[in-house]
Amino acid sequence: MSRSTARYEPKVRDxxxxxxxxxxxxxxxxPEWGYKKMTRCLKNLGYEVNHKRVMRIxxxxxxxxxxxxxxxxxxxxxxxNACHVRRAEMGNQVWAVDxxxxxxxxxxxxxxxxxxxxxxxxxxxxxxxxxxxxxxVREVLVNLVRQRGAxxxxxxxxxxxxxxxxxxxxxxxxxxxxxxxAPGSPWQNGKxxxxxxxxxxxxLNKELWGSVLEAQAVTRQWLVTYNTIRPHGSIGLMTPxxxxxxxxxxxxxxxxxxxxx
Length: 261
Description:
By secondary structure, the protein is α/β, with parallel strands linked by helices.
């Protein structure tokens, strides 16, 4: 017998339409689910069905869930911006920023924004607050520029407080640029990491904060001691203030007098 004259005719099961109708209702209720989840759902409802049958019904009705074409936004930052690669070669050329955390005696969180001159090791700012977002970061950086001029670039991780358009626009207006380190690589901002370690060991671990105002006052007083009294091993046991004066005398000072409007 010729194959062209006799073929197998698939038998439509009696419950095919019932199953299709049930899947249609489930599709409306759960549009993000695929046929595998639907198979499990049908079994939980008492249907004796395997995934292949559900898949055939699924494909026949065009119910496939389209694959997402959106890709996760890649975090900014590259190894080329690491402190051991893109080095500070003069005072005020590179500022490094980061956060360190603590809490007040009532258990509420405190965040400290720290800013360091990588070449002179000067602690430029330690600002305390319950929350420190892009607005506070911008204000701190702008105020520092008014005091000493803008750096060539500001090194940081890719936290939202630093990558925000508010901060980026401010830095561009000041004539500076951002240098984001590679994601998940805090050692690439090693100078600030070291500074935060000193802050933690010599300040935060020794203090009990009763309020934000107390933290602000004490940290600013400690910063004066750090810059003008405490010898620093990385700069020949000079104080950061002394080393900054030496850098200026040697002409090793980055000068950018562009100010924000």
